[in-house]
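Technical note accompanying the year-one report. For the benefit of new consortium partners, we illustrate the data format agreed upon in the data management plan: each record pairs a sequence with a C-alpha cell string. No post-processing was applied to the example shown here.
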Amino acid sequence: MVESPYRLRHRRLMDTAPAAAISSDSGHSGSNGGMPIMVSILVVVIICTLCYCVYCWRWRKRNAVKRTEIERLRPLSNSDLPVMDLSLIQAATNNFSKDNKLGEGGFGPVYRGVLDGGSEIAVKRLSARSRQGAEEFRNEVELIAKLQHRNLVRLLGCCVENDEKMLVYEYLPNRSLDAFLFGTARTAHLDWRMRQSIILGIARGLLYLHEDSYLKIVHRDLKASNVLLDNKMNPKISDFGMAKIFEDEVIEVNTGHVVGTYGYMAPEYAMEGVFSVKSDVFSFGVLVLEILSGQRNGAMYMQEHQHTLIQDAWKFWNEDRAAEFMDASLEDGAYSKDEAWRCYHAGLLCVQESPELRPTMSSALLMLISDQTTSLPSPQRPPLFARTKKAVSPSGYSFGTETTSKTQSVNDVSITMIQPR
C-alpha cells in the first residue's frame, strides 16, 4: 500500500525527534562540565587583580612616605645648610669605594672624599639597614648646622636625593680619640700635654653646648669614638643624632627611649631614662679617666678586673696610689703631677652617682685650669654597673650609634642594674 505524503512526513518527524533530544541532552551535559573551569579561571583572575591592586597601593604609599620625608628635609637644608648633589659626592668618594671607607656606626658607613678643588670631606651615609632614620638625620642637621665652635665637628652640607640621606663633614685626618687611646701603637704619640689639651678641648665643647650657645643641648652619647682629632690633635665632638635641645627652664627630661654606650651612661639615665646636662658631665668624667689611664671603661675591663675602670680610679685615689692609675706610657717625670691629679680629681667628681653632686661643665672646666686644688670636695664612690653581654670593639671612625627602645650600645653591651658592693 502506498503511504500518503502526509503519513510519510509525520513518520520522518517522529524519527528525528529522539535524535534531537539526544543532541540537546549532550549539549547540556557539556555546558555543565565547562562551568567549574570558567569559575576557577574567574577566581584566579580576581585574586591576581586584588594582589596587583594591593601591591600598587603599598608602592604608592611607600613612595608617598619617602617623598614626605624628603620634602620635610629639603626646606631645612635649603635654609640652613648647603645641599650637595649626589653626583658630586659620588665623584668625590669614587662611588663610595671600599678603599675610601673610614668606618661604620649605627647611622651607616663613613667615607673619605676629595672635592674638585682638593678639599677633603667625610661623608656619613644613612644605611638602609640603619635603625636611625629621618628623625635622627634631621636632628643632626638642625643642631650642628646652627652650632659653631672650634671643639665641635663642622658640618659642610647634606644630600637628600634618590632615597639617599648623607651628611658631609670636614675631614679630620687623625680620626677618633679611641684610635689613639686604647692599647694601640699610636698611644705613644699621646704625651701629657696632648692629653691635657684634649681634656680641656672636650670640656670647652661641652660647656658651649650646655651654657654658651643660644641652644641648651645635651649630647647624650659622648664617648672616645665620638671625639675626632684634627691634624693638630685638637678634639672635636661629633655625632649629634641623639642630642636633645632643652628649654631654658627645663632641668631634666624623663624618656623611655634610652640610647647610648655602655660605660659612658650616667646611672639615672641608664636605669630610669632621666637625662640632663649632668648626664653629659658623667660621660665627660669617664672620658677624663680613660685619657689618664689609657684604658676603656667597658665590659672587657670588667671581665679582666671584675669591676669598672671608674671604681678602680676611686680605689686608687682613696688609697693614695693615683700614680698607679696613670697610663704606663706616661713615665715618671713625663707629666706634671699637680696637673694630672687635678684632672684625676675633677674626673672622679664628674662620675659620682648622684647628679646633684656632680659639677656643671663651667665648674669642671674651672677645676681643670685652676691651680687651687685644696678647696675641691672629696669625691664619693662611683656607681656600680652589672655586665650582661660581651663587648665588641667599635670602629675608629664611627660617627654614629644604634638606637633601640632598650638600653643598648654599639658594643652590644647593655646596662641592666646597679648593685651595692
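Partners are asked to follow this layout when depositing records. Residues 5-80 form the longest helix (76 residues).
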